[in-house]
Backbone:
């Protein structure tokens, strides 16, 4: 065996290995790690403590802690073309309105259809002819989603790649109207208010709201967030949670039920062309009410 040659090969292998490890450690530092409270006994203790306060959670408790910063956002410059596509072939009328601050928004009308495009690019579409009436057929969520996707593809000419379907709040029963919501996502995590929302009645789109923000990347130094356990342990002392729990008990229910707790971002959408999304934990209740917590300070921000 030629030991000198073997030694040279080993040195080359170690150099390549160190290069790869250095790349991942320094250029791609860990973004997610398991929490110290990830063992079964600790998570069971959290569940027991919540149960003592008449609060229960349906899903498993997330065990990750995230390293992230706020996200930079910018409005899409292509929305005017989407509005043109929306009314293509229709006898439409366009009006421009100037606001006191000098910004301009547009309305486009064709028959009972109207689209409003704000200065920041927020698009709102309505069809006043599409209403829920006696005899309106009942439709499933899946059927409504197919109608919504056809509207986006065939009329609005809008690409929904980069969006995440919000199935957690889907209406599972047949209904005369269904609302489909897609949200922008970043590295697999949802931006809860950068949405594409479509309401379908029967087999037609009644309304559509499209938030124009696109993600440009992180624009603040990354830091480790609070954990889902941190949020859950604070719930019994939260006055709003206490009120909801007491209302549930007064209705004869056994618990205030949490459907899920999930990490994501919220932009607090403004009328400016440049925005920012903050890291949050979202607590989703069984009745689809949403409660948002600052992902760093673990303090409640708002509910809706």
Residues:
């Amino acid at each position: 065996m030629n030991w000198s040659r073997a030694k040279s090969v080993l040195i080359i292998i170690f150099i390549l290995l160190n290069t790869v490890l250095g790349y991942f450690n320094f250029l791609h530092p860990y973004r997610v790690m398991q929490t110290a409270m990830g063992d079964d006994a600790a998570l069971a203790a959290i569940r027991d403590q919540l149960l003592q306060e008449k609060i229960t959670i349906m899903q498993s408790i997330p065990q990750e802690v995230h390293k992230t910063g706020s996200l930079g956002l910018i409005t899409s410059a292509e929305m005017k073309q989407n509005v043109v596509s929306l009314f293509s072939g229709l006898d439409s009328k366009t009006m421009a309105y100037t606001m006191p601050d000098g910004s301009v928004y547009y309305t486009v009308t064709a028959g009972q259809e109207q689209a409003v495009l704000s200065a920041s690019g927020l698009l709102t579409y309505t069809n006043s002819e599409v209403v829920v009436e006696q005899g309106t057929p009942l439709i499933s969520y899946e059927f409504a989603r197919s109608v919504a996707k056809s509207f986006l593809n065939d009329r609005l000419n809008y690409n929904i790649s980069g969006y995440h379907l919000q199935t957690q709040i889907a209406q599972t029963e047949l209904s005369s109207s269904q609302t489909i919501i897609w949200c922008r996502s970043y590295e697999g995590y949802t931006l809860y208010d950068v949405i594409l929302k479509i309401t379908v009645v029967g087999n037609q789109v009644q309304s559509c709201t499209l938030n124009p923000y696109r993600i440009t990347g992180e624009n603040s130094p990354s830091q480790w967030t609070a954990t889902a356990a941190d949020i859950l342990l604070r719930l019994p002392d939260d006055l709003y949670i206490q009120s909801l729990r007491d209302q549930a008990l007064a209705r004869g229910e056994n618990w205030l039920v949490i459907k899920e707790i999930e990490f994501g971002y919220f932009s607090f959408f403004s009328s400016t062309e440049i925005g920012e999304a903050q890291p949050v934990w979202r607590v989703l209740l069984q009745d689809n009410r949403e409660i948002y917590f600052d992902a760093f300070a673990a303090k409640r921000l708002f509910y809706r």
Q: What stands out?
A: The CA atoms of residues 137 and 202 lie 5 Å apart. Residues 3-27 form the longest helix (25 residues).
